[in-house]
Acyl-coenzyme A thioesterase THEM4
Amino acid sequence: MPGARTSAHPIFTVQPREPLDERRVEHLSALAAEVRRLNEATVHTALPEEELTELTAQVRALTDRLDAARRAFPPVSGDGYTTPGEGMLQQIASPVTGELNPIAPPCRIEFLEDGSVRTEFTLNFLYEGPPGLAHGGVSAMVLDQLLGLAANNNGTPGLTASLELRYRRPTPLGQRLTAEARIDRIEGRKAYAVGRILNAEGKVTIEATAMFVMPMLG
Ligand SMILES: CCCCCCCC(=O)SCCNC(=O)CCNC(=O)[C@H](O)C(C)(C)COP(=O)(O)OP(=O)(O)OC[C@H]1O[C@@H](n2cnc3c(N)ncnc32)[C@H](O)[C@@H]1OP(=O)(O)O
Protein backbone atom coordinates (compact mmCIF):
# COMPACT_ATOMS: atom_id res chain seq x y z
CA MET A 1 0.00 0.00 0.00
CA PRO A 2 1.82 3.13 -1.18
CA GLY A 3 2.68 5.55 1.60
CA ALA A 4 0.98 3.50 4.34
CA ARG A 5 1.93 4.53 7.85
CA THR A 6 3.05 2.07 10.47
CA SER A 7 2.57 2.65 14.17
CA ALA A 8 3.16 1.15 17.59
CA HIS A 9 -0.61 1.57 18.04
CA PRO A 10 -2.06 0.31 14.76
CA ILE A 11 -5.73 0.82 13.95
CA PHE A 12 -5.90 -2.73 12.71
CA THR A 13 -3.73 -5.66 11.71
CA VAL A 14 -4.34 -7.67 8.55
CA GLN A 15 -4.93 -11.33 9.51
CA PRO A 16 -3.28 -14.10 7.51
CA ARG A 17 -5.64 -15.32 4.79
CA GLU A 18 -5.31 -18.43 2.70
CA PRO A 19 -5.05 -17.67 -1.03
CA LEU A 20 -7.15 -19.88 -3.33
CA ASP A 21 -6.42 -20.81 -6.92
CA GLU A 22 -8.89 -20.07 -9.73
CA ARG A 23 -10.34 -23.57 -9.84
CA ARG A 24 -11.27 -23.58 -6.14
CA VAL A 25 -12.69 -20.06 -6.42
CA GLU A 26 -14.86 -21.30 -9.30
CA HIS A 27 -16.19 -24.22 -7.24
CA LEU A 28 -16.92 -22.08 -4.18
CA SER A 29 -18.54 -19.40 -6.36
CA ALA A 30 -20.86 -22.03 -7.82
CA LEU A 31 -21.80 -23.11 -4.27
CA ALA A 32 -22.39 -19.48 -3.20
CA ALA A 33 -24.57 -18.88 -6.28
CA GLU A 34 -26.80 -21.80 -5.23
CA VAL A 35 -26.95 -20.54 -1.62
CA ARG A 36 -27.94 -17.11 -2.99
CA ARG A 37 -30.83 -18.83 -4.80
CA LEU A 38 -31.65 -20.68 -1.59
CA ASN A 39 -31.75 -17.39 0.36
CA GLU A 40 -34.19 -15.86 -2.10
CA ALA A 41 -36.31 -19.01 -2.34
CA THR A 42 -36.52 -19.08 1.48
CA VAL A 43 -38.05 -15.61 1.55
CA HIS A 44 -40.49 -16.29 -1.29
CA THR A 45 -41.54 -19.89 -0.63
CA ALA A 46 -45.18 -20.81 -0.02
CA LEU A 47 -44.49 -24.50 0.73
CA PRO A 48 -46.57 -26.11 3.53
CA GLU A 49 -45.17 -26.42 7.09
CA GLU A 50 -44.50 -30.21 6.89
CA GLU A 51 -42.21 -29.70 3.90
CA LEU A 52 -40.49 -26.76 5.59
CA THR A 53 -39.64 -28.94 8.62
CA GLU A 54 -38.11 -31.57 6.34
CA LEU A 55 -36.17 -28.97 4.31
CA THR A 56 -34.88 -27.30 7.47
CA ALA A 57 -33.33 -30.63 8.56
CA GLN A 58 -31.76 -31.06 5.10
CA VAL A 59 -30.26 -27.56 5.13
CA ARG A 60 -28.97 -28.11 8.69
CA ALA A 61 -27.22 -31.31 7.52
CA LEU A 62 -25.63 -29.47 4.58
CA THR A 63 -24.43 -26.65 6.81
CA ASP A 64 -22.97 -29.11 9.34
CA ARG A 65 -21.09 -30.82 6.49
CA LEU A 66 -19.60 -27.54 5.21
CA ASP A 67 -18.80 -26.36 8.73
CA ALA A 68 -16.87 -29.56 9.51
CA ALA A 69 -13.99 -28.08 7.47
CA ARG A 70 -14.27 -24.49 8.63
CA ARG A 71 -11.48 -21.91 8.05
CA ALA A 72 -10.91 -19.35 10.80
CA PHE A 73 -11.13 -16.51 8.25
CA PRO A 74 -12.55 -16.23 4.73
CA PRO A 75 -9.96 -16.99 2.04
CA VAL A 76 -8.77 -14.55 -0.64
CA SER A 77 -7.99 -14.95 -4.33
CA GLY A 78 -4.65 -14.84 -6.11
CA ASP A 79 -1.43 -14.75 -4.13
CA GLY A 80 -3.04 -13.56 -0.93
CA TYR A 81 -2.57 -10.09 0.51
CA THR A 82 -0.66 -8.32 3.16
CA THR A 83 -2.19 -4.84 2.96
CA PRO A 84 -5.78 -3.52 2.96
CA GLY A 85 -5.25 -1.89 -0.44
CA GLU A 86 -4.53 -5.18 -2.14
CA GLY A 87 -7.12 -6.88 0.04
CA MET A 88 -10.01 -4.93 -1.45
CA LEU A 89 -9.28 -6.48 -4.84
CA GLN A 90 -8.81 -9.99 -3.54
CA GLN A 91 -11.65 -10.09 -1.04
CA ILE A 92 -13.73 -12.78 -2.69
CA ALA A 93 -15.97 -12.95 0.41
CA SER A 94 -16.85 -9.22 0.40
CA PRO A 95 -20.57 -8.58 1.15
CA VAL A 96 -20.73 -6.37 -1.96
CA THR A 97 -18.41 -7.83 -4.59
CA GLY A 98 -17.64 -11.29 -3.21
CA GLU A 99 -18.51 -14.15 -5.54
CA LEU A 100 -18.06 -16.44 -2.50
CA ASN A 101 -20.44 -14.49 -0.29
CA PRO A 102 -24.11 -15.50 -0.67
CA ILE A 103 -25.28 -12.16 0.73
CA ALA A 104 -23.40 -10.18 -1.95
CA PRO A 105 -25.59 -9.28 -5.02
CA PRO A 106 -22.64 -9.70 -6.18
CA CYS A 107 -21.48 -6.47 -7.85
CA ARG A 108 -18.91 -7.23 -10.56
CA ILE A 109 -16.58 -4.26 -10.84
CA GLU A 110 -15.19 -2.74 -14.04
CA PHE A 111 -12.02 -0.69 -13.63
CA LEU A 112 -12.09 1.95 -16.35
CA GLU A 113 -9.09 3.54 -18.07
CA ASP A 114 -9.85 6.98 -16.65
CA GLY A 115 -9.42 5.53 -13.14
CA SER A 116 -13.13 5.39 -12.34
CA VAL A 117 -15.00 2.21 -11.37
CA ARG A 118 -18.40 0.98 -12.43
CA THR A 119 -20.76 -1.90 -11.79
CA GLU A 120 -24.09 -3.13 -13.12
CA PHE A 121 -26.15 -5.10 -10.63
CA THR A 122 -29.69 -6.01 -9.60
CA LEU A 123 -31.16 -6.06 -6.11
CA ASN A 124 -33.90 -8.58 -5.34
CA PHE A 125 -36.40 -8.69 -2.46
CA LEU A 126 -33.66 -9.83 -0.05
CA TYR A 127 -32.57 -6.18 -0.11
CA GLU A 128 -35.99 -4.62 0.37
CA GLY A 129 -36.39 -1.47 2.46
CA PRO A 130 -39.66 0.36 1.77
CA PRO A 131 -42.11 -2.06 0.07
CA GLY A 132 -40.84 -2.85 -3.43
CA LEU A 133 -37.78 -0.59 -3.09
CA ALA A 134 -34.11 -1.06 -2.19
CA HIS A 135 -33.08 -0.62 1.43
CA GLY A 136 -31.14 2.65 1.81
CA GLY A 137 -28.49 0.96 3.95
CA VAL A 138 -27.86 -1.66 1.27
CA SER A 139 -27.40 1.07 -1.37
CA ALA A 140 -25.03 2.82 1.06
CA MET A 141 -23.02 -0.40 1.43
CA VAL A 142 -22.69 -0.74 -2.35
CA LEU A 143 -21.62 2.89 -2.69
CA ASP A 144 -19.17 2.70 0.22
CA GLN A 145 -17.45 -0.25 -1.42
CA LEU A 146 -17.48 1.31 -4.89
CA LEU A 147 -16.10 4.68 -3.76
CA GLY A 148 -13.51 2.78 -1.71
CA LEU A 149 -12.50 0.83 -4.80
CA ALA A 150 -12.15 4.11 -6.73
CA ALA A 151 -9.75 5.32 -4.02
CA ASN A 152 -7.95 1.99 -4.20
CA ASN A 153 -7.78 2.11 -8.02
CA ASN A 154 -6.25 5.57 -7.73
CA GLY A 155 -3.41 4.15 -5.63
CA THR A 156 -4.73 5.93 -2.52
CA PRO A 157 -6.65 3.25 -0.58
CA GLY A 158 -8.08 3.97 2.84
CA LEU A 159 -10.78 3.29 5.38
CA THR A 160 -14.05 5.19 5.10
CA ALA A 161 -13.87 8.19 7.45
CA SER A 162 -17.10 9.74 6.15
CA LEU A 163 -19.83 8.77 3.71
CA GLU A 164 -22.60 11.19 2.75
CA LEU A 165 -25.60 10.18 0.67
CA ARG A 166 -28.40 12.09 -1.03
CA TYR A 167 -31.33 9.83 -1.82
CA ARG A 168 -32.83 11.64 -4.85
CA ARG A 169 -35.44 9.11 -5.89
CA PRO A 170 -36.32 5.54 -4.87
CA THR A 171 -33.96 2.77 -6.02
CA PRO A 172 -36.05 -0.03 -7.56
CA LEU A 173 -35.70 -3.76 -6.95
CA GLY A 174 -35.56 -6.24 -9.81
CA GLN A 175 -34.17 -3.94 -12.47
CA ARG A 176 -30.66 -3.31 -13.72
CA LEU A 177 -28.90 -0.63 -11.70
CA THR A 178 -25.60 1.04 -12.50
CA ALA A 179 -23.23 2.43 -9.89
CA GLU A 180 -20.15 4.47 -10.68
CA ALA A 181 -17.45 6.21 -8.66
CA ARG A 182 -14.28 8.21 -9.12
CA ILE A 183 -11.74 10.14 -7.10
CA ASP A 184 -12.47 13.84 -6.82
CA ARG A 185 -9.30 14.99 -5.04
CA ILE A 186 -6.49 13.96 -2.70
CA GLU A 187 -5.39 15.95 0.33
CA GLY A 188 -2.45 14.32 2.10
CA ARG A 189 -3.70 10.99 3.53
CA LYS A 190 -7.29 11.84 2.62
CA ALA A 191 -8.87 10.68 -0.63
CA TYR A 192 -12.23 12.26 -1.56
CA ALA A 193 -14.45 10.21 -3.85
CA VAL A 194 -17.80 10.82 -5.54
CA GLY A 195 -20.27 8.32 -6.94
CA ARG A 196 -23.88 7.55 -7.73
CA ILE A 197 -26.46 4.89 -8.50
CA LEU A 198 -28.60 5.16 -11.63
CA ASN A 199 -31.83 3.30 -12.41
CA ALA A 200 -32.49 1.43 -15.67
CA GLU A 201 -33.66 4.70 -17.31
CA GLY A 202 -30.33 6.32 -16.48
CA LYS A 203 -31.84 8.56 -13.79
CA VAL A 204 -29.78 9.17 -10.66
CA THR A 205 -31.35 7.62 -7.57
CA ILE A 206 -28.53 8.26 -5.06
CA GLU A 207 -25.50 10.54 -5.04
CA ALA A 208 -22.58 9.86 -2.69
CA THR A 209 -19.45 11.56 -1.47
CA ALA A 210 -16.92 9.88 0.79
CA MET A 211 -13.57 10.52 2.39
CA PHE A 212 -11.06 7.70 2.88
CA VAL A 213 -8.09 7.93 5.22
CA MET A 214 -5.07 5.74 4.79
CA PRO A 215 -4.85 3.85 8.11
CA MET A 216 -1.93 3.05 10.34
CA LEU A 217 -0.95 -0.60 9.91
CA GLY A 218 0.31 -3.05 12.47
C1 LIG B 1 -9.71 -4.36 3.58
C2 LIG B 1 -10.54 -3.37 2.80
C3 LIG B 1 -12.01 -3.25 3.27
C4 LIG B 1 -12.79 -2.27 2.42
C5 LIG B 1 -14.11 -1.97 3.07
C6 LIG B 1 -14.90 -0.85 2.36
C7 LIG B 1 -14.83 0.45 3.08
C8 LIG B 1 -15.16 0.27 4.53
O1 LIG B 1 -16.15 -0.26 4.91
S1 LIG B 1 -14.05 0.87 5.67
C9 LIG B 1 -14.82 0.46 7.25
C10 LIG B 1 -15.54 1.63 7.85
N1 LIG B 1 -14.60 2.60 8.33
C11 LIG B 1 -13.93 2.42 9.48
O2 LIG B 1 -14.09 1.44 10.20
C12 LIG B 1 -12.94 3.49 9.84
C13 LIG B 1 -12.94 3.75 11.34
N2 LIG B 1 -12.12 4.91 11.59
C14 LIG B 1 -10.78 4.79 11.71
O3 LIG B 1 -10.23 3.69 11.68
C15 LIG B 1 -9.99 6.04 11.83
O4 LIG B 1 -10.79 7.05 12.41
C16 LIG B 1 -9.43 6.55 10.47
C17 LIG B 1 -8.50 5.49 9.83
C18 LIG B 1 -10.56 6.86 9.47
C19 LIG B 1 -8.64 7.81 10.72
O5 LIG B 1 -7.77 7.55 11.80
P1 LIG B 1 -6.27 8.11 11.82
O6 LIG B 1 -5.44 7.42 10.81
O7 LIG B 1 -5.83 8.06 13.24
O8 LIG B 1 -6.47 9.54 11.28
P2 LIG B 1 -6.47 10.92 12.07
O9 LIG B 1 -5.02 11.23 12.35
O10 LIG B 1 -7.45 10.91 13.18
O11 LIG B 1 -7.03 11.85 10.92
C20 LIG B 1 -6.35 12.01 9.67
C21 LIG B 1 -7.01 13.17 8.96
O12 LIG B 1 -8.35 12.78 8.57
C22 LIG B 1 -9.31 13.65 9.19
N3 LIG B 1 -10.47 12.85 9.58
C23 LIG B 1 -10.46 11.67 10.21
N4 LIG B 1 -11.74 11.19 10.33
C24 LIG B 1 -12.54 12.12 9.77
C25 LIG B 1 -13.95 12.23 9.58
N5 LIG B 1 -14.78 11.27 9.98
N6 LIG B 1 -14.43 13.32 8.94
C26 LIG B 1 -13.59 14.30 8.51
N7 LIG B 1 -12.23 14.25 8.66
C27 LIG B 1 -11.73 13.18 9.28
C28 LIG B 1 -8.61 14.26 10.39
O13 LIG B 1 -9.15 15.50 10.74
C29 LIG B 1 -7.18 14.40 9.86
O14 LIG B 1 -7.10 15.52 9.01
P3 LIG B 1 -5.74 16.40 8.90
O15 LIG B 1 -4.67 15.43 8.44
O16 LIG B 1 -6.08 17.44 7.89
O17 LIG B 1 -5.51 16.90 10.29
Notes: Confidence is low (pLDDT under 50) at residues 1-8. Residues 11, 84, 87-88, 144-145, 148, 159-162, 188-190, 211, 213, 215-216 surround octanoyl-coenzyme A (CB under 6 Å). The longest strand covers residues 177-187. The radius of gyration is 19 Å.
